[in-house]
Amino acid sequence: MSREEMDQLGWDSCDIIIISGDAYVDHPSFGMAVIGRSWEKQGFRVGIIAQPDWSSKEDFMRLGKPNLFYAVSAGNMDSMINRYTADRKLRHDDAYTPNNEGGKRPDRAVLVYTQRCKEAFSDVPVLIGGIEASLRRIAHYDYWSDKVRRSVLFDSKADLLVYGNAERAIAEIAHRASRGEAMKDMLDIRGTAAIISELPGDWNAKDSTRVDKPGRVDPIPNPYHYADEENSDGSSCSTKSQAANDEVEEQVLHILPSPGSKQEFILLPSYEKVRNDPVLYAHTSRVLHLETNPANARTLVQKHGERYLWVSPPAIPLTTEEMDEVFDLPFQRIPHPAYGSARIPAYDMIKFSVNIMRGCFGGCSFCSITEHEGRWIQSRSEDSVIREIEKIRDMTPGFTGTISDLGGPTANMYHLNCKSEVIHAHCRRLSCVYPTICKNLKTDHSATTQLYRRARSLPGVKRIMIASGLRYDLAVEDPEYVKELVTHHVGGYLKIAPEHSEDGPLSKMMKPGMGTYDKFKEMFDRFSREAGKEQYLIPYFIAAHPGTTDEDMMNLALWLKSNGFRADQVQAFYPSPMASATAMYHSERDPLHRVNYKTSKVVIPKGERQRRLHKAFLRYHDPDNWPMLREALERMGKAHLIGYGKKHLVPPTQPANHPSAKKYGSKLHPKGSQGGKPAAKAKPNLPSSGTRKKGPRKGTILTQHTGLPPRQSGNGSKPKRKRR
To answer: I need a labelling partner for 318 at 20 to 30 A (CA). Which of 158, 279, 493, 691 fits?
Structure first.
């Protein structure tokens, strides 16, 4: 990180210099550390300039001129999501910065950092990557400017983009650059994007520039598919008899590592067209998501002006042995000593946790994990995970015996994949678990159960907690796993994410219905009782998601109240780049299915007032929201829900001591006098999922999407009514 450190190592220069928007933490949960250690293992000298002063080029020159190239990343988060709330308000903190200090990275950090690198040394190539570049690799809707922007490659003027986790790609790029090859000529590396001047004449183009002429974006039908099996996107998920599977298994394994073997690309609608035509934008999003399986994805090409964006297929996923090699790199597991005693909140949150896998086949439309890490689950070996736990125990300062999490993008997809590599190689499903769990998916959690048992038996380890979000529709397929989890690895509360109670929004989220939640809750409660523990579920919900009406939110609020939930904080839908739900938000079309100009529009809660209303429904118990909710209920013809009874959603009056009492009055609302007399005190919070039928119970204020533990409030006994 400094010239002094270079002198200690005997370096006169660096081969590669990483520019990052995060503080440098040498830990496998931080992208710059993984990439830097990976290049180091390949024999390259790597410098890191973390959170540079972007006001001039000077800070970008502190380590001198790199021999090969700069590698630019905004950090572990998109810089705009890091700096702004879902309401586009500026955040004043940054968990990836020492002492949680805000303002240490610029808006659109990849663009700014690349520009400063070019100013520092104009002849040095720039490679861009990380989550921000990855999710902006094609023309994309930008929520903060409310318009479609060009690929980040064109705006940044970088030489090459790498997307995904990229260990394979970055090794090949560095070695080819060291041999003198220009980055603009590295078009055959999987998981990269580049700019080209003309299309190759020896490739076969599939024209998908118009919705009425989409070209073939689905695979050739497989003769072994089940005739009655169809995916949520209309394509088939093939399966084969064991005999046929045995015959072609070896051939498929041979094909997988051969990038570009078909010499075929899909020509997407140009940037200029998707910028001006929301339907074409939705169509482009759909084609992109259908081309994410590394086994059958094709190169995507999108014209920008007079040049073309060339996006190669995703990288071949790492094997278990290769994943182990990545996590066995010599990480120091602490922030760089230059930060002294300063606290870095993001590090504090994960320093006692272990990442056991990558990827997610859930396909939630609002989430971008799949677009970055892929749908294939890449799992570490059990031995590798155990070695990391032992390193935490022996190396990490402050360890008291509790591992805070064994997880990843989800807690329970460890070693879950398709039953057949042949089937997986032909599949284009957007989700393996929606609308139902695919019959070809392994749902046996025994590998995870065995890992939990071995981890908690280690000397010096007192507890193993599970803090990653649980995919409960998968968990109910393996009751033994649920019992193991509930009995040993829940610290009183377990967070799960039904996201909504109504089928309309859930169908646009690609999430299961509440029947699956009820089934999991019954198992959770039963196993908690058997273990003699009082434990609660913490469900997460999203407000203002595409496809959500005001009535949907009202019904969700009624469900929350009837189940005794009170949300402390809530999350509104955040249109992150490249997510399918973001395409819905912008285009008002559903890219989860084929789109055309006659396709019905999707209901989109867009305006600030409507988004505030949807959040208010989630916090129906907050007096600040009652005036807005009363007005909305009257407008919706639901004034009968205004009153003091158990079946009413909000009371007709403001509390006498509430600041709004003067404005709205504390007299009975003329349309909401049902339900009898007002109570003198608000009811305390009820538990999220109690196990006792009688007697006082503790309550929970749910914390939504913050990762913070829920607060306790009172003993839960009912207050006495005052007599008048």
So the answer is: 158
Give the contacts of 720 (CB within 8 A, at least 6 positions apart).
none
* Rounded Cα gap, residues 39 and 174, in angstroms: 8
Tokens of 97: 């910065």
How far is residue 631's CA from residue 628's CA, in Å, rounded to a whole number? 5
The residue ranges of DSSP E strands in 189-259, in sequence order, are 192-196, 204-207
Element (H, E) at 17: strand 16-20
**Host H or E run for residue 345:** helix 345-350
Return d(Cα 196, Cα 188) in angstroms, integer.
13
In the chain, what's the furthest Cα-to-Cα distance? 89
Residues in the chain, how many? Answer: 724
Give the whole-angstrom CA distance, residue 710 versus residue 715. Answer: 15
Beta strands 147-149 and 140-142, pairing class: antiparallel
List the one residue out of 716, 710, 651 whose CA is nearest residue 686. 716
User: Alpha helices of 382-438 — where are they, by DSSP H?
Assistant: 382-395, 421-426
> What residue type is 385 in one-letter code?
V
The answer to whether the beta carbons of residues 499 and 365 sit under 8 Å apart is no
Q: Tell me which amino acid residue 671 is.
A: K
Encoded tokens for 515: 């029947």
- Residue 229's pLDDT is what? 41
Residue 338 in contact with residue 19, Cβ under 8 Å?
no
Closest CA to 402 of 360, 330, 458: 458
pLDDT score recorded for residue 520: 97
What pTM, to 2 d.p., does this model score? 0.86
pLDDT digits (tens, 9 = 90+) for 399-447: 999 999 999 999 999 999 999 989 999 999 999 999 999 999 999 999 9
Contact criterion met (CB below 8 Å) for 337 and 277: no
Task: Give pLDDT < 70 ranges for the chain.
Answer: 212-262, 660-724
Q: Could you give the residue ranges of the DSSP H alpha helices within 106-179?
A: 109-120, 130-134, 152-156, 167-178
Query: In angstroms, rounded to a whole number, what is the distance separating the alpha carbons of residues 196 and 187?
Result: 9
Cβ atoms of 336 and 49 within 8 Å: the answer is no
Amino acid at 532: G
Q: Residue for token digits 């910065």?
A: 97
Residue 359 burial (10 A CB sphere; 0-12, 13-18, 19+) = buried
Q: What angle do CA 172, 177, 182 make, to 5 degrees?
A: 115
Write the single-letter amino acid at 150.
R
- pLDDT, residue 662, reads 60
Pairing of strands 353-355, 711-712: unpaired
Q: Where are the alpha helices (DSSP H) in 187-341?
A: 242-255, 271-276, 278-290, 320-327
Taking only Cα atoms into account, the Rg of the chain, rounded to an integer number of angstroms, comes to 27
CA distance 632 to 648: 14
d(CA 74, CA 76): 7
- Rounded Cα distance between 224 and 56, Å, is 61
**Token reading at 660:** 């709004």
Structure tokens at 32: 């710059």
CA angle 323, 189, 48 (to 5 degrees): 65
From the CB of residue 364, how many other CB atoms can be counted at a distance below 10 Å?
22
Q: For the beta carbon of residue 343, count every other beta carbon within 10 angstroms.
A: 11
Confirm if 489 and 527 have CB atoms less than 8 A apart.
Answer: no
The β-bridge partners of 300 are: 266, 311
